[in-house]
Automatic annotation (TrEMBL):
Keyword hit for 4Fe-4S: no
Record's protein name: Galactose-1-phosphate uridylyltransferase
Species, as recorded: Microbacterium bandirmense
Annotated PROSITE patterns: GAL_P_UDP_TRANSF_I
InterPro entries, A to Z: GalP_UDPtransf1, GalP_UDPtransf1_His-AS, GalP_Utransf_C, GalP_Utransf_N, HIT-like_sf
Catalytic activity, EC: 2.7.7.12
Biological classification of the source: Bacteria, Bacillati, Actinomycetota, Actinomycetes, Micrococcales
Length: 392
């Protein structure tokens, strides 16, 4: 492999001693290395010398006239790799026998997904030849209703590799590494929010085969949407129908309940009053903050060990690791910045050691939920599990 500094390489110092190094992959996709403070890695990075096919056409969205929702058809994702061994891990650093997506050894790496649900309007690999024949035309256009409406799914999807290790999750990282990932989330949130046409940025981690994970490598993703997602639209509507400080009132309500699981100076984790899932916990900053980019250093510093403790508590509930979705809800880019507070919503279908909750008729078809576990009981169990975890 060719070890050198890429001609497009640049380095930027971020918070907490994290250094961001930017380059491109062989097909023009952007790649960012986020180096831990005091990293053992040098500044050099391998050039991606692979010969890659041209990037696929950006996916297409179709509107469901009965709900108004936009459904993306990303057909190239149908044949993605399923649970490869360590010798074929596409998120591991490249080796002579494994031409993976990341050319160099790394601490944290972020890159554009090769077959994304939301992709570029321009193909950088071919000098900016237009790919989006039918791009979105703003929020008003997205809100209109009509039979047979389609748009190109212009946006961006990035993969966030938490570690070069083949197996693990966010919860298996060190406090230092967790802090680096938080810095990466903040940096990418700011950069993606500034892209033309992006209306909402969503970092998340899928963990476990029961959730549908196809790679055991510790990683998450960031989706950047050309519209405000349905969940957030409903939240904005509820804020409009009630009070502008609704989320502050919700936090105050939860902090005085027996559903609090973990609390720090800047963050509180709680099982929500009307939790749908057998395991559901939210983590919310005490200060009104719309997204990761707006967090101050003290909030980021506390989040790293507190979030790790919460995730390890989730795993302490049972004798085997628990599958979950860790969804970081953030305010839209151009709406609700002063009313929508960022929060983590961690959910799992696991309702017992050997039982899962399946979304059947009422939940799946009608969106009318029935819960089997009281939130207060779930919070008590999770508090005990978190208390059994050593300080991180």
């Amino acid at each position: 492999m060719n070890t050198q500094i890429s001609p497009e390489f640049r380095a930027d110092e971020l918070g907490a001693g994290v250094v961001k190094r930017s380059t491109r992959l062989a097909d023009g996709r952007e790649l960012f290395y986020f180096d831990d403070p005091g990293t053992a890695l040098g500044p050099e990075r391998n050039v991606d010398a692979r010969t890659l096919d041209e990037r696929p056409e950006t996916a297409t969205m179709r509107q469901d006239i009965l709900t108004g929702d936009w459904i993306t058809f990303a057909t190239k994702r149908q044949n993605r790799v399923m649970m490869p061994g360590a010798d074929a891990d596409p998120l591991a650093p490249q080796t002579p026998t494994n031409p993976s997506e990341v050319p160099s050894r790394y601490d944290v790496a972020v890159f554009e997904n090769r077959s994304p649900a939301f992709g570029p309007a321009l193909n950088r690999a071919t000098g900016g030849v237009p790919q989006a024949a039918n791009p979105t035309r703003g929020l008003d256009d997205m809100a209109e209703l009509g039979i047979g409406r389609t748009r190109t799914s212009v946006g961006r999807c990035e993969v966030v590799c938490f570690s070069p290790d083949h197996e693990g999750s966010f919860g298996s990282q060190s406090v230092t590494r967790a802090r680096t990932i938080i810095e990466a989330w903040a940096d990418r949130t700011a950069a993606l929010s500034a892209l033309p046409g992006i209306e909402q940025v969503f970092p998340f981690e899928n963990r476990g085969e029961a959730i549908g994970v196809t790679l055991p490598h510790p990683h998450g993703q960031i989706y950047s949407y050309p519209y405000v997602t349905p969940r957030t639209q409903r939240l904005l509507d509820n804020i409009h129908r009630t009070v502008p400080d609704l989320m502050t009132r919700v936090l105050d309500f939860e902090q005085t309940s027996d559903r609090v699981v973990l609390q720090g100076e800047h963050w509180t984790a709680f099982v929500p009053f009307a939790a749908r899932w057998p395991l559901e916990v939210q983590l919310m900053p005490h200060r009104h903050v719309p997204d990761f980019a707006a967090l101050n250093d003290a909030e980021r510093d506390e989040l790293a060990p507190l979030y790790l403790r919460l995730l390890r508590g989730v795993d302490a509930l049972y004798s085997t690791p628990t599958a979950y979705i860790a969804a970081w809800h953030q305010a839209p880019v151009n709406a609700g910045r002063d009313t929508v507070r960022m929060r983590l919503e961690l959910t799992s279908p696991r309702r017992a050691e050997d039982k899962l909750k399946f979304l059947a008729g009422s939940e799946a078809a009608m969106g009318a939920w029935t819960a089997e576990i009281l939130p207060e009981v779930a919070a008590e169990r999770l508090r005990a599990a978190v208390a059994s975890i050593p300080e991180v």
